[in-house]
C-alpha cells in the first residue's frame, strides 16, 4: 500500500535501546514450550527405521510382523507417501529424503516408520520390520565422488551447465561460473601468485533442540502440526504438497526454537508424522534422537577448493580464480554455486573467475547452515589472501584495505554494490586496540573478512490496537534470536509508545498470509519493514478516528510522539489525543483499530564483517586455544544492540568450532562414526573467550531505518581468521578444516622435520 | 524390566547370582543410563547398590583409604585428606564427564565400564589401587589393573560386585598426577592419558614409580619400563626424554574418530612427561 521503504535519517527513541525480550523469562525459568513440549490426548509415539547402509537398493520391506505387535497403530513405508510432486524435482527429492523410495542413499536414510502406544513398543516394532537390502558400492568423499568410475548415486544425473551435454551420467549435477575480466591476462601482470588447495569437512548446525513435532490428521481431511521450525509457512506448503492436501487445510503452529541455523528450514520427519497420524487416526508425536539428528538432518557441505590469486608488487590484486567442489548429499543442490558467488565478494577485482561443482555423495542431504557455503569459500580465499599479503610484504589488513570493494564496485558475482561495510570494518579493525595487544610464546594473531548476501522476501504482519491502547503484533517469521523484542521496539518507535505496551507473538499459519521462513538474515530486516508499514497503516486509521472525534478533516491531523495533533490555525486550541484515548473511543468511532501489511522486502543490504583472533598452540600436542576474539560487523542499524551482538558472538562461536574440531567422520563402511555431541565436538563454554563485538552502522538505503540482516555473516570469517593466526603462531599453513590437534601436530612435526 | 534396591551386599550378590536374565548394576548410572537410552543395552534386571550400607562412604583407615563403590566423584573432591594423599587419583575422578555427571559418577563404575579411555583408571593403576570384590564365593582383593579384560569387558564373574577401592597410606615424599588429552577443555573423553605415581628418597631421587597410560591399548597399560627409567633419577631432561620415548613405544593405539596412532603415541609420551614433573613436584622434589 504505497509503502516507501527508502532510508531517511531520524532520531530514534526506542530503536537502539536494550529492553528485556518478551520470551526471556519463560526461557530462563523453563516454561517456554519447545517442539517436544506439546502433547495431545491419545497421542502415539512415532519412530523411524533408518538404513544402516550408505547405499543400498531396497528390494522388499516386510512390515507384517511389526503390524501384528500389540500396541502398534500404524506402520508406513514410502508406499504410504505416494508421489504428489507432479514433476517438481526438488520436491521429489524432499519426498525421497523423508522416506527412501527405491534406494537408501546414506547411513540414516529413513525407510519405514511406526506409530505405537509408547516408545518401547515403537522401538520393538522397528526391530520387527524386515528390510531386504542389496548393498551397493558407496562414495562419501567429495573428490572421490567426482572421479571417473566412482559409484553412481543417481544414473539419471547428467551434469548441467557444461557447454555440451555429457554423454555419461556422473555424480556432478551442475557446473556454475561467475566473474568478469580476463584472469589469464591478469595473472600475466602479477609479480606474486599464491596457489593452494583446501579441504573442509562436513559440519552440522549443532542446534541443541532436536527436531520435534506433533501431527494430528483429522477425519475431515484437515490436519494440525505443532513443530519446531524456522518457517512454519514453508513447512505447511511442503507438508501439504507431499501429502496431497490443500495448504489451507493444514494448520501449522510453531514452538519456541532451540536453535536452527538453517537446519530447521527443511522438512524431515514432519511429513512422516502426518502420514503416520493419517494412517493411525490419532495424533503422533515424533521427536528425533540426537543420533538421528546427526545422521539424517542438517548438515552442511564438505568441500574441496582450489584458489589462485596474483598481485603486483604494490599490492594490487591482478587476478583471482577459484574452483569449488561442494558435496550435496545424494540430491542436487546449488551449494557450490553460492560458494562461487561469495568467494571474492569482499574485493574489487578487475579479473575474477569462480567455478562451482555440485557433487552427489552418500551422505545426508545438505541443508543450509548460517551463510550457507560462504565460510568454506572464505576459508580458502582469506587464507590465500593472507599468504599473498606476506609475499608482497604488506600488513594483511592494509593489503585487504587496498583491494577492498567499495560503493560502485562490480562484485565478483555480478551486481554493482551500493554503500557497503567492508572498507569500514577493515579500518575499524586496523584501529582496534586488539590489533596492538602483546602476544606471548606460541601465540599468534590472525584476521579475515566475510561476506553474506542477506535476503528480504515475503512478509505479512498484523498490528492490532487493543481498547486499552496496548498493541499486539502478530508476525509470521519465527523468532530465532530476539526478533520479537526487536519488532516490538520498531512498533513502539513508529507509534510513539513505550516498548512495554507492545507484545509481539508468532502467529500460526491460519492467522496470517504467507511468510517466508527465517533464513538469509531476513527475520528482522523484512518483518521490521512490514511492521513499520503496518504501524503506518494503523496511524492513518488513528488519525482518521481522531479527526472524527474532533470533527475535522483528517488532513489536519498529524501523528507525533504517540498522539494525534490537530494542525492549522482554526484547530490550534484542540488538545492532543493519545493513542490510548483514541483506542478507548474506538468502539464508537468505527470499531477496532488495526494496521496490516503484506510486502516483498526487496533490497536487503549486503553484509560484511572482519574478525580478529589470538590463539595459542601447544607445540607438543597440536592443541589450539582461542585466547581473544573480536568481531567487527556492519548492522546497518542495530535495532536491539544486545541481540545483534548475540548474533555476532553466536556466529563466531560456531565458526570457531568448525575451524578447530567439528567434522563428520565416516568409516570405510560409509557409516557415520560420531553421531553425538561427545565425538562431534562443538565448543563448550570454557573453550571460548568472551567474544568482543563492535557494531558499525552503515545505513541500508533500502530500509526506512537503514537495517541490514546480521544473523549469518559472523560465521564466515572465523575459519580463515584462526588458520591465519595459527600460521602466525606456529609457522604452519593449515589447508584442511578442522584444524584438529592430530592434523596440527602432524603439520608441526612435518615442519620440524623440514 | 525389574529394578531392585538391596539393603545388604549379600542380597545384591545373591540377586545378581540367581538372575537368569541380563542384569546390570546401578551406582551413579552415568554410563548405564546413557547406554540404555541409546538402546545399546536393555537389561531385564537393575540392581541399585546405593542403599547398601558403607558403599557410599570414604573411610580413612590405618592402611590408607577405602572408597565405597557408590561414592560419587564430587564427594572425592570434597575429601581433604584423600586429596592431600592422592591428588592424582582425585583429579582424574574429577575429570569424568561434566560437573553434573560428577555428582553421580563413581570410580568403580568407571573401572567396570572397562573403557580404555576411562579417566580414573590410569590414575588408580599408577596409584597401585586395589579392588575389593564380593561374590557368591566370598571376598577377594585384586589389583585394579586386573579388572578390565578389554573394551567393555571385565574379569568379574557372574554375581560379583566391586564393593570398594583401596588406596595405600602414603609414605613421606610421595606424589601422583594424572593428565589426559582432549580436544576441548571439558565434557570430553580422553584421546590418550597418563598417570604417574612417585615416591622419593631423602635426597629427592625417585625411589619407586608407577606409570600408566590410558586410551593407548585395549586396556589401561601399566608401563613397567617407564617406571624403571624414572627410579633413581631426579627427573633430569634426559630421563624425561627417555620416559616420553618409552611411553610412546609402549602404546598399542588404534586410529579412530578420536585420534590417530601417531598422535596417540606422541602425546602419550608428552603427557607422561608432564605428569611425571607434576607428581615429582607434589612429592616435594625440586
UniProtKB/TrEMBL annotation, chain A:
Gene3D superfamilies cross-referenced by the UniProt entry: Aldehyde oxidase/xanthine dehydrogenase, a/b hammerhead, Aldehyde oxidase/xanthine dehydrogenase, molybdopterin binding domain
Record keywords: Molybdenum, Oxidoreductase
Keyword field contains Oxidoreductase: yes
InterPro entries given in the database record: Ald_Oxase/Xan_DH_a/b, Ald_Oxase/Xan_DH_a/b_sf, Ald_Oxase/xanthine_DH-like, AldOxase/xan_DH_MoCoBD1, AldOxase/xan_DH_MoCoBD2, AldOxase/xan_DH_Mopterin-bd_sf
Aldehyde oxidase/xanthine dehydrogenase a/b hammerhead domain mapped to chain residues: 29-137
Protein name in the entry: Xanthine dehydrogenase family protein molybdopterin-binding subunit
Organism of derivation: Ollibium composti
Automatic annotation (TrEMBL), chain B:
SUPFAM superfamilies according to UniProt: CO dehydrogenase flavoprotein C-terminal domain-like (SSF55447), FAD-binding/transporter-associated domain-like (SSF56176)
Keywords: FAD, Flavoprotein, Oxidoreductase
InterPro entries: CO_DH_flav_C, CO_DH_flav_C_dom_sf, Diverse_Substr_Oxidored, FAD-bd_PCMH, FAD-bd_PCMH-like_sf, FAD-bd_PCMH_sub1, FAD-bd_PCMH_sub2, Mopterin_DH_FAD-bd
Transmembrane segments: none
FAD-binding PCMH-type domain mapped to chain residues: 1-172
Gene3D superfamilies in UniProt: 3.30.465.10, CO dehydrogenase flavoprotein, C-terminal domain, Uridine Diphospho-n-acetylenolpyruvylglucosamine Reductase, domain 2
Protein name per Swiss-Prot or TrEMBL: Xanthine dehydrogenase family protein subunit M
UniProt organism field: Ollibium composti
Amino acid at each position: 500500500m504505497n509503502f516507501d521503504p527508502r532510508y531517511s535519517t531520524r532520531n530514534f527513541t526506542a530503536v537502539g535501546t536494550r529492553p528485556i525480550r518478551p520470551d526471556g523469562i519463560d526461557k530462563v525459568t523453563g516454561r517456554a514450550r519447545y517442539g517436544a513440549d506439546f502433547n495431545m490426548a491419545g497421542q502415539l509415539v512415532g519412530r523411524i527405521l533408518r538404513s544402516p547402509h550408505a547405499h543400498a537398493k531396497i528390494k522388499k520391506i516386510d512390515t507384517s510382523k511389526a503390524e501384528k505387535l500389540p500396541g502398534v497403530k500404524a506402520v508406513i513405508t514410502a508406499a504410504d507417501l505416494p508421489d504428489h510432486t507432479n514433476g517438481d524435482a526438488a520436491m521429489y527429492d524432499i519426498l525421497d529424503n523423508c522416506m527412501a523410495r527405491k534406494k537408501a542413499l546414506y547411513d540414516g536414510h529413513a525407510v519405514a516408520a511406526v506409530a505405537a502406544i509408547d516408545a518401547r513398543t515403537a522401538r520393538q516394532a522397528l526391530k520387527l520390520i524386515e528390510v531386504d537390502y542389496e548393498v551397493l558400492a558407496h562414495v562419501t568423499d567429495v573428490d572421490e565422488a567426482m572421479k571417473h568410475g566412482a559409484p553412481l548415486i543417481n544414473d539419471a544425473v547428467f551434469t548441467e551447465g557444461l557447454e555440451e551435454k555429457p554423454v555419461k551420467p556422473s555424480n556432478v549435477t551442475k557446473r556454475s561460473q561467475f566473474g568478469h575480466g580476463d584472469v589469464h591476462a591478469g595473472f600475466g601482470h602479477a609479480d606474486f601468485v599464491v596457489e593452494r588447495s583446501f579441504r573442509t569437512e562436513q559440519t552440522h548446525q549443532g542446534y541443541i533442540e532436536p527436531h520435534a513435532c506433533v501431527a494430528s490428521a483429522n477425519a475431515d481431511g484437515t490436519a494440525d502440526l505443532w513443530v519446531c521450525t524456522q518457517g512454519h509457512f514453508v513447512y505447511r506448503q511442503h507438508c501439504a504438497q507431499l501429502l496431497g492436501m490443500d495448504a489451507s487445510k493444514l494448520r501449522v503452529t510453531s514452538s519456541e526454537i532451540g536453535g536452527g541455523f538453517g537446519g530447521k528450514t527443511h522438512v524431515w520427519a514432519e511429513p512422516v508424522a502426518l502420514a503416520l497420524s493419517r494412517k493411525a487416526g490419532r495424533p503422533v508425536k515424533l521427536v528425533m534422537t540426537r543420533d538421528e539428528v546427526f545422521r539424517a538432518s542438517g548438515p552442511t557441505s564438505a568441500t574441496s577448493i582450489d584458489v589462485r590469486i596474483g598481485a603486483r608488487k604494490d599490492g594490487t590484486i591482478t587476478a583471482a580464480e577459484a574452483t569449488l567442489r561442494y558435496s550435496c548429499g545424494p540430491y542436487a543442490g546449488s551449494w557450490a554455486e553460492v560458494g562461487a558467488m561469495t568467494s571474492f565478494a569482499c574485493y574489487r577485482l578487475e579479473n575474477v573467475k569462480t567455478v562451482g561443482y555440485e557433487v552427489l555423495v552418500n551422505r545426508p542431504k545438505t541443508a543450509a547452515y548460517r551463510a550457507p557455503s560462504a565460510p568454506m569459500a572464505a576459508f580458502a580465499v582469506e587464507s590465500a589472501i593472507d599468504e599473498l599479503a606476506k609475499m608482497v610484504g604488506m600488513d594483511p589488513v592494509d593489503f585487504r584495505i587496498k583491494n577492498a570493494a567499495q560503493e560502485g564496485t562490480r562484485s565478483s558475482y555480478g551486481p554493482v554494490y551500493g554503500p557497503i561495510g567492508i572498507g569500514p570494518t577493515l579500518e575499524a579493525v586496523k584501529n582496534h586496540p586488539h590489533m596492538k595487544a602483546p602476544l606471548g610464546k606460541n601465540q599468534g594473531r590472525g584476521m579475515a573478512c566475510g561476506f553474506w548476501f542477506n535476503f528480504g522476501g515475503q512478509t505479512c504482519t498484523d498490528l492490532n490496537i487493543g481498547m486499552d491502547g496496548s498493541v499486539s503484533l502478530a508476525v509470521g517469521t519465527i523468532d530465532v534470536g530476539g526478533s520479537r523484542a526487536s519488532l516490538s521496539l520498531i512498533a513502539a518507535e513508529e507509534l510513539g509508545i513505550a516498548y512495554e505496551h507492545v507484545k509481539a507473538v508468532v502467529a500460526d499459519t491460519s492467522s496470517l498470509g504467507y511468510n517466508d521462513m527465517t533464513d538469509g538474515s531476513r527475520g528482522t530486516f523484512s518483518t521490521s519493514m512490514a511492521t513499520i508499514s503496518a504501524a503506518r497503516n494503523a496511524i492513518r486509521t488513528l488519525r482518521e478516528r481522531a479527526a472524527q472525534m474532533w470533527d475535522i478533516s483528517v488532513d489536519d491531523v498529524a501523528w507525533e510522539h504517540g498522539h494525534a495533533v490537530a494542525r492549522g490555525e482554526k484547530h490550534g486550541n484542540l488538545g492532543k489525543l493519545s493513542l490510548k484515548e483514541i483506542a478507548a473511543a474506538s468502539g464508537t468511532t468505527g470499531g477496532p483499530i488495526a494496521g496490516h501489511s503484506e510486502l516483498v522486502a526487496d533490497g536487503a543490504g549486503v553484509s560484511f564483517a572482519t574478525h580478529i583472533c589470538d590463539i595459542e598452540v601447544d607445540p607438543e600436542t597440536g592443541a589450539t586455544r582461542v585466547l581473544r576474539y573480536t568481531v567487527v560487523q556492519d548492522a546497518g542499524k542495530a535495532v536491539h544492540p544486545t541481540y545483534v551482538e548475540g548474533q555476532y558472538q553466536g556466529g563466531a562461536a560456531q565458526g570457531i568450532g568448525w575451524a578447530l574440531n567439528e567434522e563428520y567422520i565416516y568409516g570405510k563402511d560409509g557409516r557415520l562414526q560420531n553421531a553425538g555431541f561427545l565425538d562431534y565436538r562443538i565448543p563448550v563454554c570454557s573453550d571460548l573467550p568472551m567474544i568482543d563485538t563492535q557494531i558499525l552502522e552503515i545505513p541500508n538505503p533500502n530500509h526506512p531505518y537503514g537495517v541490514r540482516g546480521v544473523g549469518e555473516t559472523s560465521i564466515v570469517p572465523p575459519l580463515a581468521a584462526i588458520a591465519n593466526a595459527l600460521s602466525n603462531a606456529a609457522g604452519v599453513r593449515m589447508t584442511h578444516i578442522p584444524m584438529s590437534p592430530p592434523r596440527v601436530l602432524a603439520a608441526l612435526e612435518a615442519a620440524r622435520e623440514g | 524390566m525389574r529394578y531392585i534396591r538391596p539393603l545388604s551386599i549379600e542380597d545384591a550378590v545373591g540377586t545378581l547370582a540367581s538372575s537368569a536374565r541380563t542384569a546390570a548394576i546401578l551406582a551413579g548410572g552415568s554410563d548405564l543410563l546413557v547406554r540404555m537410552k541409546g538402546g545399546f543395552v536393555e537389561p531385564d534386571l537393575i540392581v541399585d547398590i546405593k542403599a547398601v550400607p558403607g558403599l557410599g562412604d570414604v573411610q580413612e583407615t590405618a592402611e590408607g583409604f577405602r572408597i565405597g563403590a557408590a561414592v560419587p566423584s564430587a564427594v572425592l573432591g570434597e575429601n581433604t585428606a584423600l586429596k592431600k594423599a592422592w591428588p592424582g587419583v582425585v583429579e582424574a575422578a574429577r575429570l569424568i564427564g561434566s560437573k553434573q555427571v560428577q555428582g553421580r559418577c563413581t570410580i568403580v563404575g568407571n573401572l567396570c565400564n572397562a573403557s580404555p579411555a576411562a579417566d580414573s583408571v590410569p590414575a588408580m593403576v599408577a596409584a597401585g589401587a586395589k579392588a575389593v570384590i564380593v561374590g557368591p564365593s566370598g571376598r577377594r582383593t585384586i589389583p585394579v589393573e586386573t579388572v578390565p579384560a578389554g573394551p567393555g569387558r571385565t574379569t568379574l564373574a557372574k554375581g560379583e560386585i566391586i564393593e570398594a577401592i583401596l588406596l595405600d597410606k602414603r609414605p613421606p615424599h610421595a606424589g601422583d598426577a594424572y593428565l589426559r588429552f582432549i580436544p576441548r577443555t571439558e565434557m570430553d573423553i580422553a584421546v590418550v592419558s597418563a598417570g604417574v605415581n612417585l615416591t622419593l628418597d631423602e635426597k629427592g631421587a625417585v625411589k619407586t614409580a608407577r606409570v600408566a597410560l590410558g586410551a593407548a591399548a585395549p586396556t589401561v597399560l601399566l608401563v613397567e619400563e617407564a617406571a624403571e627409567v624414572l627410579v633413581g633419577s631426579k627427573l633430569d631432561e634426559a630421563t624425561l626424554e627417555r620416559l616420553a620415548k618409552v611411553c610412546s613405544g609402549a602404546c598399542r593405539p588404534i586410529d579412530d574418530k578420536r585420534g590417530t596412532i601417531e598422535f596417540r603415541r606422541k602425546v602419550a609420551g608428552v603427557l607422561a612427561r608432564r605428569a611425571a614433573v607434576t607428581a615429582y613436584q607434589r612429592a616435594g622434589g625440586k
